[in-house]
Design brief:
By secondary structure, this protein is α/β, with parallel strands linked by helices. It contains 18 helices and 16 strands.
């Protein structure tokens, strides 16, 4: 029985991924991501297009200083221009000057692009491909040839599309990647086309899929089934328009569903960590519902589901979450049953069992609060406090005597002035403070912290990460109830809290107080749960 070929992972987050809307990596960002991908075990990392901008030129200079254990860095560029001799083409020279062991160049496979975009003959395009590959190979570099728009080109002119691949092969390309650049190919098309290509081309093939049809991962997996050995993609599916094939999903599916161990078991357990790291570096919120690595990937809400998962996780989990470094989460909501509450109690270290009469009381209170508009799925800090109060284990850290918030607008062209005054009792001491802020809630937050930090210095590390307001019954107009969700964090983690009221300041106060009390009540050394 023939052994399946080893699959090569080729990451293009730093080049193709960086072309996504809202993403702008600095040189240091790119270097940090390279280190993380190398730790994960990615064998090929495409760093950017040298010569395209000063930032990429600096990156290729700095990345050579990194002591990488697994990864080989690739520089990306185009075939020579028709107006330049190959030895004089500035783009190819910039690729060589990057001093990377791997060079990836793309060329045109779709006759439409050759005649319309480049404005040259089909024969001339073949010369550009052949000259460029041969020249780079003469410089002793590994050359990956990306056949841009290959699937669209094949569907309109298959003979010419294949001829472009044959020219790259004849001149010594080490890999030929078939690119679905517009992202519109379907899996059944990819299967048939890759099968045909594999019969004509001896060079190891790769797949580079975009996600405009939401099937980039599926297309990549089908290509692997047909013999492709190099899979290109980006962490979290970053990329222009709808993104690229999500390398996180590809890695997990290849390893766990297709028995292609692209990473070791130990490396695979760092997949979730890597995905969230790249989100952080990109300064983007993580995608909660992302398969395998998202916070909701192994989250269970319905009481029947929770009951079954507690007995046997595979009843509602297609793989164990820990194999990709994720964790199981039991959500709390009005759909929760006693099993969900017992699971949360165990998570919080609370002494509660199925025979405890307080369990039904907590469940009843939870359902009533959610009827009023509270939501605890994103506010587990508030829910833990609710359980601790019901079980009599919550310590009161301060008492409100009163607060006042003033919003004053003095001139039409100026921003309003917001000031909050607060009076608290901490033990026997009374603290009376005032603070200003960028809005009434921000002023109240500042005043609350100012009043408490002298008693609880650990609050100086707490920061407000996110603040969301949702109107619960819009038909009531300005008298509608609102729900405020706050995400807070410190150096140990993040937590969510919630407040509900017809008064947005009161709802915000509830969430702010829960945020502070949760931080103060956390057991020493216990890491908070990400909301």
């Amino acid at each position: 029985m023939n052994k399946a070929p080893v699959i090569e992972l080729y990451d293009t987050t730093l080049r193709d991924g960086a072309q996504a809307e809202d993403i702008a990596f600095s040189v240091e960002d790119k270097l940090r991501i390279v280190r993380k991908l190398d730790e994960l075990g990615i064998p090929y990392i495409e760093g950017g297009w040298p010569g395209a901008n000063p930032k990429d030129a600096e990156f290729f200079k700095e990345v050579r200083k990194l002591p990488l254990k697994h990864a080989r860095i690739a520089a990306f560029g185009a075939t020579r221009k028709a107006s330049h001799a190959v030895q004089e083409d500035p783009s190819l020279q910039a690729l060589l000057d990057a001093h990377t062991p791997v060079i990836t160049i793309f060329g045109k496979s779709w006759d439409l692009h050759v005649t319309e975009a480049l404005g040259i003959s089909l024969k001339k395009n073949l010369e550009l491909i052949g000259d460029s590959v041969a020249y780079l190979k003469s410089k002793r570099r590994m050359v990956v040839y990306d056949a841009e728009h290959f699937f669209d080109g094949y569907k309109t002119n298959p003979d010419y599309a294949l001829e472009t691949l044959e020219r790259a092969q004849a001149e010594g390309a080490d890999r030929i990647a078939l690119c679905d650049t517009n992202g519109g190919a379907m899996p059944w098309e990819v299967r048939e086309i890759v099968r045909t290509v594999a019969d004509r081309i001896d060079v190891p093939l790769g797949i580079h899929a975009h996600n405009d049809g939401d099937v980039a991962v599926a297309n990549s997996l089908v290509a692997v089934e047909e013999g492709v050995v190099q899979v290109q993609g980006t962490i979290n599916g970053f990329g222009e328009r709808c993104g690229n094939a999500n390398l996180c999903s590809l890695i997990a599916n290849l390893a766990l569903k297709m028995n292609r161990p692209v990473l070791s078991e130990t490396q695979l357990r760092h997949l979730t960590e890597t995905a969230r790291f790249v989100f952080e570096i990109a300064n983007l919120p993580s995608h909660k519902r992302q398969p395998y690595v998202g916070e909701s990937a192994f989250a269970h809400k319905g009481g029947i589901h929770v009951h079954a998962v507690r007995k046997k996780p595979e009843t509602y989990e297609h793989v164990p979450p820990e194999v990709v470094g994720n964790r199981r989460r039991i959500l709390v909501s009005d759909a929760a049953g006693k099993g969900s509450l017992l699971e949360k109690a165990a998570e919080y270290g609370l002494d509660l069992d199925a025979s405890d009469p307080r369990l039904q009381g907590i469940l009843t209170e939870l359902k009533e609060l959610e009827r009023q508009g509270y939501q605890f799925e994103g506010a587990e800090g508030s829910f833990e406090l609710l359980m601790r109060k019901a079980l009599g284990t919550h310590r009161r850290f301060f008492d409100l005597i009163g607060f006042r918030v003033i919003v004053e607008k003095r001139r039409e062209a100026e921003e309003p002035l917001c000031e909050a005054t607060i009076m608290l009792r901490v033990g026997q001491a009374v603290e009376h403070t005032a603070s200003v802020g960028a809005g009434p809630v921000n002023a109240l937050d500042h005043a609350l912290r100012k009043a408490l930090e002298g008693f609880y210095p650990q609050l100086k590390d707490v920061r407000l990460i996110d603040y969301k307001v949702r109107v619960l019954a819009a038909q009531d107009g300005t008298a509608s109830r609102v729900r405020v969700l706050i995400e807070s964090g410190d150096q140990t983690g993040t937590w969510g809290t919630v407040g509900v009221s017809t008064n947005i300041i009161e709802a915000s106060w509830q969430a702010l107080v829960d945020s502070i009390e949760y931080r103060l009540s956390r057991r020493a050394g216990r890491r908070s749960q990400t909301s």
